[in-house]
Amino acid sequence: MDSQSLPASHPHGAARRGADRRYARRKPEASDLYQIVQQELESFLAAASARERPVPRFVARELRAFLRCGILANGFVRVHCDGCGLDRVVAFSCKGRGFCPSCGGRRMADTAAHLVDRVLPEVPVRQWVLSLPFALRYRLAYDAPLVRDVLDVFVRCVFASLRRRARKQGAIARGHCGAVTFVQRFGDALNLNVHFHSLLLDGVYARSAEGTLRFHPLSPPDDTEVERVAGQVARRLARLLERRGLGDDTPDDDTLATEEPLLASLYAASVTSRIATGSRSGQRVLRVGDRIDADDLPVLQGERCASVGGVSVHANVSVPARDRRRLERLCRYGARPPIATERLSRLEDGRLLYRLKHRWRDGTTHVVFTPQELVEKLAALVPPPRFHLVRYHGVLGPCASERDRIVPAGEGARPIQSSSSPESASTPSRVDGDPASAASATPPDLASSERLESARVAGHGLPEGAPRAAGRSRRERAALGCARLHQGAAARAHRSEGREAVHDPAGRPSAARRNAAARRNGLLRRDPAVTD
Predict the structure, then answer these.
(1) CB-CB contact of 170 with 422 (8 Å)
(2) Are 332 and 112 in contact (CB under 8 A)?
(3) Taking the mean position of all CA atoms in its chain, how far away is CA 214?
(4) How far apart are CA 344 and CA 350, in angstroms?
């Protein structure tokens, strides 16, 4: 049955057709990105092996999995509506963390929904962005412990700034802070650029005289305070690198170049926007635009932005307490995938043109890659195993004692009292960098359970372009609101008279079957007092 023949009152009928909400299967094989990887992957891997510098297994696995993502021949699930009998097939995804636009878009939507509905409380939130020197970006690309230590230095400096301003503003002796950090590994031109987007609660929690937990919002930091934070981060990072033997006066011990020489060359070239392999090895990435000499231009520095010793800190984006929609957009921005397929196009000579999101200071608007150069840039963006891209700090950390009383989904969650101040969370009168956004502060239109369930349904197969569509709710993107997943005959199994159920309605083994399997494996002992 086609959705075109359904009555207007049906959820799959004209009501959805009028808003253009019909599900359309994603066709990755028709995209330029898929075709380039399909054509160049094996030759890229073979050339690396011929030079006795093989591609690491986790990179090759991610690239090959991308070619199976969204292809029906590699497996699918059937989505069925019991009300109208409408059937859809949804292909399996690769679940890659590197560059897959579909899986990255699904993870972006799911992560943002989880943070807004179940982690971040209804208090003001400010984004702090930390950019690092080029030499340190190369180290952070593969050294997960160093990423942890650098991020810890940055978060501690910002927390100290919040507590210092809280003591001056409200005489709060001991304030508790919280943050969520997105570790982004990419730049606007598909270059390797490890930097941090931290969403910090723009205030501190403290206990009142009655023992209740109370949030105290703070006024925005001025330029002097941001510069002070940047200076502290730069000094502490210098001491950290010196302790780890990575300072300027210590010999360089590049373990990655010894263990994975090809990956080291890919990282080094991507950080400096150069080419690592092929006939243009060592040359800069081709740029297109009204090129000018950026060295002659005056250095423009925005509000609440500071740079000290190659360490750049930006803190001019904030969201009021009640503006959950804008907070979700900010979370999606931090969790977004590295590549946007709509900005990638082919030239007549077969090369790839990638449009930048913003014009650079020197006038560059596009970068140009050959197919092999694009594959090497994608390989450099794949994160190593056990390299976490979302981190939690302070009262939002998983082991924080007060977390259940603060997060919206906590077992002991209750309304947190907010102290009155000119920048109080209850009066979102101003947003730094976007004064007009305060007027659009509206509560979410979906309950938490509905929002996350809709995100899961949409995540099994997003329509073409949906991952990059800003402002659309997950309910609108849900393919079938009343859909039910079937997985072969197991999902259609039901109870028969006089027999135990083999599977439950969701397709999972029944409790009796699971217990029997556990007893066979020695994981569960039968109570001798219980008889069959």
Answers:
(1) no
(2) yes
(3) 30
(4) 12
Vertex 134, ends 133 and 138: CA angle to 5°? 120
The answer to whether 35 touches 66, Cβ cutoff 8 Å, is no
Which one, of 28, 203, 196, 13, lies nearest residue 120 by Cα?
A: 203
Q: State whether residue 437 is helix, strand or coil.
A: helix
Q: How many residues does the chain have?
A: 532
3-class secondary structure, 316? strand
Six-digit token pair at 30?
């028709």
401 contacts: CB under 8 Å, gap ≥ 6: none
Q: What is the pLDDT of residues 325-344, one digit of tens each?
A: 999 999 999 999 999 999 99
Q: Please give the structure tokens belonging to residue 132.
A: 């690092």
DSSP letter for 202, please: S
pTM: 0.76
pLDDT confidence band for 29 (50 / 70 / 90): very high
Q: Are 79 and 89 in contact (CB under 8 A)?
A: yes
β pairing state of 76-80 and 484-486: antiparallel
pLDDT, tens digit, for every residue of 505-520?
A: 444 455 555 555 555 4
Here the tokens at position 156 are 């501690």
- Sign (positive or negative) of CA dihedral 263, 267, 269, 273: positive
DSSP-based three-state secondary structure for 201: strand
List for the chain the helix, strand, coil content (%; round to 5): 40, 15, 45
Q: How far is CA 38 from the centre of its chain?
A: 25
Q: What are phi and psi of 406, to 5 degrees?
A: -110, -45
Domain limits, the chain? 101-294+304-428+445-477, 488-520
| Count of helices and strands (H, E) across the chain | 16, 16
